[in-house]
Write a structure and sequence with these properties.
Elements lengths: L10 E5 L11 E4 L6 E4 L10 E3 L5 E4 L3 H4 L9 E5 L2 E5 L4 E2 L5 E2 L9 E7 L2 E4 L5 E7 L5 E10 L2 E10 L5 E2 L3 H7 L4 H4 L8 E2 L8 E8 L2 E9 L1 E4 L6 E5 L9 E4 L4 E8 L8 E12 L4 E3 L7 E3 L3 E4 L7 E15 L2 E16 L12 E4 L7 E2 L14 E7 L9 E3 L3 E2 L8 E11 L9 E7 L7 E7 L14 E7 L9 E6 L9 H4 L8 E4 L9 E8 L5 E8 L8 E5 L10 E6 L10 E9 L5 E8 L3 E5 L6 E7 L4 E6 L7 H23 L5 H19 L10 H24 L3 H4 L8 H28 L8 E4 L3 E8 L15 E3 L2 H7 L6 E8 L18 E9 L5 E4 L2 E11 L6 E8 L7 H7 L1 E6 L5 E7 L6 E7 L5 H4 L5 E3 L5 E6 L7 E8 L7 E17 L2 E4 L2 E7 L2 E8 L2 E8 L20 H31 ...
Parallel strand pairs: 11-19, 21-28, 29-35, 68-72
Antiparallel strand pairs: 1-3, 2-3, 4-5, 6-7, 8-9, 10-12, 13-14, 13-17, 15-16, 17-18, 20-22, 22-26, 23-24, 23-27, 25-26, 27-28, 29-41, 30-33, 31-32, 31-34, 34-35, 36-37, 37-39, 38-40, 40-41, 42-43, 43-46, 44-45, 44-47, 47-48, 49-50, 50-52, 51-55, 52-53, 53-54, 53-67, 55-66, 56-63, 57-62, 58-61, ...
Helix pairs in contact: 5-6, 5-7, 6-7, 6-9, 7-9
Length: 1224
């Protein structure tokens, strides 16, 4: 449109530095007559059509008489309506067009009426901008096209194009009030009529709007609107909705009988922090044929949360719905806290599922002579109601008799009124909904009447049998069983055959059957039958002559595979956010509901399919990829699935990929740790550790050798992903598990949980080794070492000749590794290049280990040595060494025991036995691992004779010989090595004064502990590979001939009772017999208590079984457990026969007596809880009440339960048996 006189280019004299200094409709532009900028209402390049100067010269007054000011506002023969920056012509019945310039040949064609627009022209911030288009009534074939664009480098770029139809509009009570509610200026809103119009537009951030309104495929109105954003630094919460469609043609379909959770994710702007204190308001609209009606009180079952909206099963009627969420959040930018608002919307449709009619017994069966005929339709089902009680049943048959005419009954059990049974009759069933009259597709059953007494076989569906509109899944096994209606379910000889839809016997059918089950059951293996085909399975047997029955199965068609498009078409891994639009996927089942699962394949030696989410529409927004190996899996409502590999070019630096993945894993672990208070599930820990190991493995072998000039770039690129990987590993080790911490070894999952943590530890240590190897991979010989320090770990990596790395690595004042010159010469030639990687673990990461495992109470250290080959790669790990490598481990806290005692030299006149008894002896138990004892005399200034013997008590003669050691002020510490044993060896410490003066007592204090060096081999600690040395400066020296993860242990040396050598302690009973008597009494009481507890346990074992009721009817397949609790007061049990009947929402059970098959098993006894297994012919539905009665027989006829009534003392639980599964 041309705006003519309505365009203002008034220039004020008010100076400005930025546009915020000017009025609403003004621009801060350079003055042509001076170098300064002034506020201008418009220029020829930026014409102003919305505002004009007010009385003060400020361009802030809305132009409200556009009809008078716009040059082309002719409205020939019609009436002109003022719009913001535009106009609209209300034409007469015989004219049409933007200015009513065209003749209307057909006056019956209806035009849209009372159009209005409202928006904010110039906005100080990119904030709650709304562009509102109102229309009071629609025209014939109404269509509104909406294009948003921006002006950049003198080129108009189209940002979005949307077409709106009547069903996209929302009905408002007042257009003007809605305009004011979304904070458009009051003077603009006053141009909007205060009527009940409809509005289709969401909030958008835009620059130029193109509107075209077509009526009967002819343009009725069109215009261009310009909008200006002054500042784009406003922080806003951005909303993304899941599980619903962004458009009407891409909506989510939800069956009425299933629930749906619509979620909204909130993201910040690129330059702002994460939104906080998010408030949400949800609005729901029912989409009618013309417009959307807001639902003030949503029906039945729904629940609103902060970022989700739950819709319960059977809660909403069928139809199309639009749901909106309005968000308000606190967001910050450079510590500037702001309030931002935004909203999002989407569509979903609630659909009815087809009614399912089913006749128990299959497609055909035989009935013997003199038998009655009952047809069972109880397996029929209406998925659209919570109960089956709303169904009615239409029966008919193919015989030319009155009894075969269609009749409608309410009872699912139907007995045909046939006078003479004979030949073959096919009965047809249709299920009918009593609520809406919908009728299902028919199913039929052929009955063959025999003139002999034959078994009456009937085939039952156990699982995945493909009935009518609910076909069988190809990727899942089919389960059928045949029963004899005369004798009930029993394991009898039966022959199974399979036929295709042409009646031909299936080739290789025996190989399709799965073995190892009962003879009357048939299991057809998954993926053995063709999709989209029908098959008939026939069972014969049970007697002579045999009975016969058949069952027809329809296999599901494959999902129709379409294609997907990426927007943009290419990008960068883990940086570009892609939108995926999938189309032409479909299914032949009803309803046409699909689920899209997107997968990204982790590249490298260890490939892993990582799910990027499950989506209910083909439009997938805001996705990051870490590799170009992408596929989508599409499944219908019955889990029939198909796959499509997608092509996308997304080159990326591998460092960035690892950084993003590791950061994501760390975020997940941290979030779960916060949610569970550090108690993260063991499965999550195991999965995260395995994934991290594969990520580091993939990265390690993609790092190339770098030159000196690229060294700094390599450090910059790799350190960030390394930091994220280490942070994720630290999060894994920081997690805890209550089962392990409390040592609940009796818990059924305890051993599995320990195994998962053991495996996770192994994976994480391997990942840390790979990180250190990756650091070495990019270094050249002689480059400066890399040192990294984290919260729990530290790394030191260098590439050089080994002779240049024989100093303490990394620091002799802390845990370190030291190569000797001999070892360096052994491993390498003078110019050979090696990588030496050392990383330290500062805390005990093996907290999950069993209680009986030995403790590690030093820092942990890992040393790896690799030789560089001529092509620049590194060869395998150097492990076995001929000369020992010295490992020094910082101890955290020495654990020791103090032994205080005294000894005196015996008189020379004593005989040898007395002299031997005068020797003071202490005994130390040798642990089950290899190590050494540390014996230190504390603050000792005297002299002692010391003898150390294994498995032999030192005697007087040994201490007086030259083999004895002398303890004095200059020599107070002794180290005694020991080897691992089964716990039966001892070390003895024998002491006598060095001075042979008789009867002179010497007091002493000995500090004793043992030490061991351990290596992490596989997934366990092993001792003996490294030999412990002395402890100096709180560091334990371990001398190793193997490279691994090392740790040290300091223990209190145990001092156990020796039942052989200490037998003399038991020879003093006569001196104090009371102690012995008390011990014997305690042992006798313990034995009696043990026998009593053993008998009680045996009794409990007999009662810890389900009691199958004696009067269960064979063939009933729906299982319930009834639990009866009896009180513990005197005479609480009963000898009466207790009867029970359970009533449900669908039907009731038979009357039963609570007694089992085992006549010796007493039930309902004092303090007992009895579990009875009760079978019913059909599901009961929701349990409503229980009827109990007693016959008051026997010596104790009454029955007491802690509850207020017998009914409350029983609890019936529906077991998780699938419909029709028999319980043997």
């Amino acid at each position: 449109m041309s705006y003519g006189t309505a365009q203002y280019d008034f220039t004020s004299n008010r100076p400005c530095q930025k546009m915020e200094d000017c009025g609403r409709g003004e621009y801060c532009l350079a003055n042509s007559s001076s170098s300064s900028a002034v506020c201008q209402c418009g220029t020829p390049q930026l014409p102003q059509v919305y505002y004009m100067p007010d009385a003060n010269g400020i361009c802030d007054k809305v132009i409200t008489d556009t009809c008078a000011k716009l040059e082309k506002a002719k409205c020939i023969g019609g009436r002109c309506l003022n719009l913001l920056g535009s106009y609209y012509c209300v034409c007469g019945p015989d004219s049409k067009g933007s200015n009513c310039e065209l003749k209307q040949n057909d006056g019956s064609v209806k035009r849209a009426s009372n159009i209005a627009v409202a928006f904010t022209v110039v906005d100080r911030y990119l904030t709650d901008r709304m562009f509102l288009f109102f229309v009071e009534s629609f025209g014939t074939d109404f269509e509104l096209t909406f294009n948003s664009a921006r002006y950049r480098n003198k080129i108009i770029e189209i940002l979005a194009k949307e077409t709106y139809l009547p069903k996209d509009f929302i009905l408002f009570q007042s257009a003007r009030n809605e305009c004011l509610r979304v904070k458009i200026s009051k003077d603009v809103c006053m141009m909007v009529p205060d009527t009940k119009p409809l509005d289709p537009f969401p909030k958008m951030f835009m620059y130029r709007i193109f509107l075209i309104l077509k009526n009967n495929n002819e343009v009725q109105f069109q215009d261009v609107y310009s909008l200006t954003n002054v500042v784009e630094q406003r922080c806003l919460p951005t909303a993304s909705m899941e599980n619903c469609g962004s458009r009407v043609d891409n909506m989510v379909r939800k069956p009425r009988g299933s629930s749906l959770r619509i979620k909204v994710s909130v993201f910040p702007s690129n330059h702002c922090d994460e939104p906080k204190n998010i408030f949400s308001e949800w609005k729901l609209y029912k989409v009618s044929s013309n417009f959307n009606v807001k639902m003030v009180n949503p029906p039945l079952d729904y629940k609103v949360g902060g970022t989700y909206y739950d819709i319960g099963a059977f809660s909403y009627p069928t139809g199309l719905y639009r749901i909106e969420v309005w968000l308000t959040a606190l967001v910050s930018n450079n510590n500037d806290v702001q309030t931002g608002s935004n909203f999002a919307y989407c569509y979903f449709e609630i659909v009815d599922m087809p009614l399912q009619a089913a006749i128990e017994g299959g497609a055909s069966r035989s009935v013997g002579q003199g038998a009655s005929l009952t047809l069972d339709a109880s397996a029929s089902y209406d998925h659209n109601t919570p109960t089956r009680g709303d169904l009615r049943y239409l029966w008919s048959c193919d015989a030319d008799i009155a009894a075969c005419k269609e009749r409608e009954v309410a009872d699912p059990l139907f007995e045909p009124a046939l006078d003479n049974f004979g030949g073959e009759i096919t009965f047809t069933l249709k299920a009918k909904s009593s609520m809406n009259g919908i009728i299902s597709m028919p199913v039929s059953q052929k009955i063959t009447f025999s003139d002999t007494d034959i078994p009456e076989l009937s085939i039952q569906c156990l699982k995945n049998c493909g009935i009518q509109e609910y076909p069988a899944r190809v990727a899942e096994a089919i389960y059928l069983q045949v029963i004899d209606l005369k004798h009930g379910l029993r394991d009898f000889d039966v022959t199974w055959k399979g036929f295709d839809e042409n009646g031909q016997e299936i080739q290789g059918f025996e190989n399709m059957k799965e073995g190892g089950h009962y003879r009357h059951q048939l299991i057809v293996k998954e993926n053995s039958l063709s999709s989209g085909k029908k098959y008939t399975f026939v069972a014969e047997g049970g007697g002579n002559p045999p009975g016969r029955a058949s069952y027809q199965v329809r296999m599901a068609n494959d999902v129709i595979i379409g294609d997907c498009e990426f927007k943009p078409e290419n990008g960068t891994k883990m940086t570009t956010r892609f939108k995926i639009e999938c189309h032409e996927f479909g299914t032949t089942v009803v309803p046409n509901i699909l689920r899209y699962e997107l997968y990204n394949v982790l590249p490298g030696k260890y490939q892993m399919d990582l799910s990027l989410g499950s989506f209910l529409t083909g439009d997938i927004l805001d996705v990051l990829f870490f590799s170009d190996d992408i596929y989508i899996k599409v499944c219908d409502i019955f889990e029939n699935c198909g796959k499509k590999k997608l092509k996308l070019k997304i080159p990326m630096n591998e460092y960035r990929q690892v950084e993003q993945l590791s950061a994501y894993i760390h975020l997940v672990l941290q979030s779960m740790s916060d949610a569970f208070e550090t108690y993260v599930p063991a499965d999550v820990i195991a999965t995260a550790s395995e994934l991290l190991n594969k990520i580091t493995y993939s990265l390690n072998y993609k790092i190339e050798i770098l030159s000196y000039s690229l060294y700094d770039d390599y450090i910059k690129d790799f350190l960030t992903p390394a930091k994220h990987m280490v942070s994720s590993i630290e999060a894994i080790f920081a997690s805890r598990n209550k089962l392990i911490e409390k040592h609940e070894e009796e818990h059924p999952t305890y051993a599995e949980t320990v195994y998962k943590y053991r495996r996770a530890t192994k994976q994480c240590i391997a990942s840390l080794e790979l990180i250190s190897s990756s650091l070495a991979q990019g270094l050249l010989q002689g480059q400066k070492e890399i040192t990294l320090n984290y919260k729990e770990f530290s790394f030191w990596v260098k590439v050089d000749t080994l002779l240049k790395m024989t100093h303490a690595v990394p620091d002799e004042n802390d845990s370190h590794v030291k190569f000797s010159d001999e070892l360096a010469n052994e491993l390498s030639k003078p110019m050979d290049s090696f990588s030496l990687s050392v990383f330290k673990l500062k805390n005990d990461l093996f907290w999950w280990k069993d209680v009986d495992d030995f403790d590690i109470n030093t820092e942990f250290i890992v040393a790896t040595v690799r030789k560089r080959n001529s092509d620049g790669t590194f060869s395998g790990l150097v492990e076995a060494l001929d000369n020992r490598l010295d490992i020094y481990l910082t101890t955290k806290k020495n654990k020791s025991s103090l032994i205080k005692g005294s000894t005196a030299f015996p008189p020379a006149s004593w005989d040898d036995d007395k002299k031997d008894k005068a020797v003071t002896v202490h005994r130390l138990d040798i642990p089950t691992f290899e190590g050494q004892f540390h014996i230190k005399f504390v603050n000792f200034e005297n002299s002692l004779r010391l003898a150390l013997e294994k498995n032999m008590r030192p005697d007087y003669e040994l201490l007086m010989s030259d083999e004895a050691k002398v303890v004095n002020a200059s020599e107070t510490e002794f180290i005694v090595p020991f080897e691992a044993n089964g716990g039966y060896d001892f070390f003895y410490i024998g002491l006598l004064p060095a001075d042979d003066t008789e009867n002179v007592s010497v007091e002493y204090t000995i500090e004793v502990f043992d030490s061991s060096c351990s290596s992490w081999i596989g997934d366990e600690w092993r001792s003996g590979i490294c030999k412990p040395g002395p402890i100096r400066n709180n560091m334990l020296n371990c001398r190793c001939k193997h490279l691994s993860l090392f740790g040290g242990s300091l223990f209190v040396a145990p001092n156990k009772v020796d039942p052989i050598n200490d037998i003399e302690l038991f020879l003093t009973v006569a001196d104090n017999p009371y102690i012995a008597i008390i011990v014997l009494i305690c042992l006798l009481l313990y034995f009696l208590l043990f026998v009593w507890a053993w008998r009680k346990d045996k009794k409990d074992e007999s009662y810890a079984k389900l009691i199958k009721l004696r009067d269960n009817v064979p063939g009933d397949t729906n299982a319930y457990v009834v639990i009866a609790y009896t009180g513990i007061r005197i005479a609480a049990g009963t000898t009466s026969n207790v009867g029970i009947q359970i009533y449900g929402s669908l039907t009731e059970s038979r009357a039963h007596i609570l007694k089992g098959d085992d006549v010796d098993r007493k039930v309902l006894q004092r303090g007992a809880d009895d579990w009875f297994l009760l079978f019913t012919p059909a599901p009961l539905g929701e349990l409503e009440r229980i009827h109990l009665w007693l016959d008051f027989t026997g010596s104790s006829p009454s029955w007491y339960s802690p509850s207020r009534s017998y009914a409350n003392s029983l609890r019936a639980l529906l077991l998780s048996f699938a419909k029709g599964i028999a319980v043997n």
